[in-house]
Amino acid sequence: MFFCGSGFAGGELACALTPTGLENINYVELKNGIYDDLYISKSADFELTAHCPEEWDFDTVLWAKFSHTTNAGNVDWNLETTSHIILKSRPEGRFKWKTIAVKETRSIEDFVINYPDYFVASGQTMEYALVPVFYGMEGDYATTSATPKYTKMFLIEDGIVWGTEITDGFCDTTRNIPSSTVELLNSRYPVFVRNTKANYDTGSCKGAFVPLDETACEFTYQETQDYQRIKYQRDFMDFICDSIPKILKLPDGRLWLVQITPSPSDTANGTYNDREISWNWVEIGDVNSESDLYYLGFSKIEAEWWDE
User: Fold this and answer.
1) DSSP 234-255
2) 284, pLDDT greater than 60
3) Residue 228, number of CB atoms within 10 A of its CB
């Protein structure tokens, strides 16, 4: 006889013909004893013995060895079958991945990757994948996505970030497609001639730039705003005149790899203390090209990891 799901002989399944519960096991407790291992497998033909298996397999759920830790995960097993961890990115909706970080795994701590991705345009959803690699063979992709949004104009070089609110600056661009028109003797209309594949942007930017924190991209004024801006004018001049390629990002989603061209100028905007720096630039590479990023010095990822 059963009453409210329980039998008088004991638990709710005590008198069942097949005493098997179908509920998921989501809690395990060990107490009042000394234990060498806790091993749980989802294998249906798991053999009960006095010893645990030699190693993890794909049916292993957890294995706590209680060797000075209560860790029951398979990080040690992954360490044995992982030579590198790589981080990849791609714009949402695209097929091709770009490798942005590679880390050799020699200890458990090497599974942690912190990478500031400066090659993301404002408002663009990016997909990221963390991939284990065993001497060239990739494992399963663990993916996530992010959509950053900015209100500033940024100029970035090797982790150094300068910026200005877009309301305090501007950036005008020109698309360059070198060509010419040839007027023929017996034709009313000229002939368009283009003998190069060159197709790149140049631009002119202007603003009052200050150094920004690389994580929050914020700047705290310790004194008056005008004084702080003037204080950093010379430092910014040195920054844009060091001949090193840079990343230029605008809050409307545009993004370039650029080289600053001669010669920037520092001019007053109405009053002496309200000063702005104007500078010109030329596009020198594709932000989605792993080879361009490598040869221009933006990336240290060598060709063996490229997806190109």
Assistant:
1) HHHHHHHTS---EEEE-TTS-E
2) yes
3) 15
Report H helices in 120-224: none
Residue 304 DSSP code: G
pLDDT at 168 over 50: yes
Burial 281-295 (b: 16+ CB within 10 A, else e): bebebebbbbebbbe
What's residue 226's pLDDT? 55
Distance CA 308, CA 306 (A): 5
Q: Which tokens is 82 given?
A: 């992982």
**Contact (Cβ atoms closer than 8 angstroms) between residue 203 and residue 238:** no
Distance in Å from the first CA to the final CA of the chain? 70
CB-based contacts of 221, cutoff 8 Å, min separation 6: 228
Count the neighbouring beta carbons within 10 Å of the beta carbon of residue 109: 7
- Among candidates 28, 24, 26, which has minimal Cα distance to 37? 28
Closest C-alpha among 122, 79, 117, 78 to residue 101: 117
| Parallel, antiparallel or unpaired: strands 38-41 and 60-64 | antiparallel
- Among the residue ranges 61-65, 139-143, 246-250, 283-287, the one predicted with the least confidence is 61-65
Q: Give me the pLDDT at residue 76, please.
A: 62
| 259, amino acid identity | Q
